[in-house]
Amino acid sequence: MASAEIAVDRAALFEFLTRMGDNTLILGHRVSEWCGHGPVLEEDIALANTALDLIGQTQLWLGLAGEVEGKGRNADALAFLRDAAAFRNCLLVERPNGDFGQTLMRQFLFDAWHHVVLTALTKSADPRVAEIAAKAVKEAAYHLERSSDLVIRLGDGTDESHARMQRALDDMWSYVGELFISDDADRAVAAAGIAPDPASLKPEWEAIVSEVLREATLKAPTSAYVHKGGRRGVHTEHLGYILADMQFLQRAYPGATW
Amino acid sequence: MATATLPSLDEVWHWLSQVPDPEIPVLSLVDLGIVREVKWDDDTLVVTVTPTYSGCPATGVINLDIERALNAHGVARVRLERQLSPPWTTDWMSAEGREKLRAYGIAPPVDDTAADGRSLALARRLASGSNLTVACPRCGSAQTQKVSQFGSTACKASYRCLSCLEPFDYFKCI
């Protein structure tokens, strides 16, 4: 452990790790809400499996975050016993599920970013970060393959599916920009070689997204407006409802196990 | 316990090769390639296991099964360690394991076909049909079709055979 310590502000590293872990936790929870409600059995199962991957990755990121913080909090304590203002997920992942098209578009826009950032993190100067990324990127590649495939098939599908996918894209678009805005914590971990600067990931993300949208016959909105705040703990009202659902048991029965 | 009375590591590997995977009981944990190392630390047997997928719900059960099996063979002290790196790959699945999968009705992984996140290649594949041929584990036909990227577990995809018309699981390459 001591040998793996990198010369970086502990608080900045904790911030980075909770951002990674909270993104996968909240999206994993959102996607799991589909369990038993998918449009067809195969998609129901695919959604549940995607959610499981994301929750598994959360355990790794938040587990390391707790270790770095050094205050005795493990992944469960961070997931179940923090309030909304302490969550560092981007606003995109807390967007409501909407219809299947909305869920899928949110997933695709996230997967494209996720695959790019995880690929970069496999070269992290912190070996603990690099090994989590090396594990997660293989799963994220399957997520991206599935969501790209379905966005193309539904975008370039019937009039109805095309219209729904375009609406989903229009609705989600302004929530993505936040992922590419750097702050002091980002700059600190980037300077230490632990993670890439968020802004540096944008060209590659754009290349993936524009290619898939072109195949899907969908048009990216031209508006440059960006909703932001999630990465520093300022959330939409949706997060509170997610936490009420997700954290209820541990709040009502502290320490309950089964 | 004196060192001389400890079972040999070969013996331990043999015992582990008889512990079935909880999700795919036809495969042992050794066939699956997730037991990375066994070693003695004084009189404690240290078993290093790597997860297949980070969210695989079988992980807890696997650890419990390993502990139980070794206890049953008289090893009193067992310590399980998790190793993330290098990440598990289906390349580590034994040839015997692949054959067992096929006989069980699950198509084994087709090497070098793991998803790589390159969507341009994906778009081209979609335009020309998939370049991945998964033979039907029942009739052997190459005329098969992917139904979904994920099957009954994250490690599998759903396929159907266009010749014998049976649905089947394909153990994805990762």
From TrEMBL, chain A:
Pfam families associated with the record: PaaA_PaaC (PF05138)
Highest taxon above the source species: Bacteria
UniProt keyword terms in alphabetical order: Oxidoreductase
GO biological process per UniProt: phenylacetate catabolic process
Record-linked Gene3D superfamilies: 1.20.1260.10
Molecular functions (GO terms): phenylacetyl-CoA 1,2-epoxidase activity
GO cellular component entries: cytosol
InterPro entries per record: Aromatic_CoA_ox/epox, Ferritin-like, Ferritin-like_SF, PaaA_PaaC, PaaC
EC number: 1.14.13.149
PANTHER family per UniProt: 1,2-PHENYLACETYL-COA EPOXIDASE, SUBUNIT C (PTHR30458:SF0), PHENYLACETIC ACID DEGRADATION PROTEIN PAA (PTHR30458)
Annotated protein name in UniProt: Phenylacetic acid degradation protein
Species this chain originates from: Xanthobacter flavus
Automatic annotation (TrEMBL), chain B:
Highest taxon, organism lineage: Bacteria
InterPro entries the UniProt entry points to: Fe-S_Maturation_MIP18, FSCA_dom_sf, MIP18-like, PaaD-like, Zn_ribbon_PaaD
Transmembrane feature ranges: none
Domain PaaD zinc beta ribbon, first and last residues per copy: 128-172
Domain MIP18 family-like positions: 10-72
Protein name: Phenylacetate-CoA oxygenase subunit PaaJ
Taxonomic classification: Bacteria, Pseudomonadati, Pseudomonadota, Alphaproteobacteria, Hyphomicrobiales
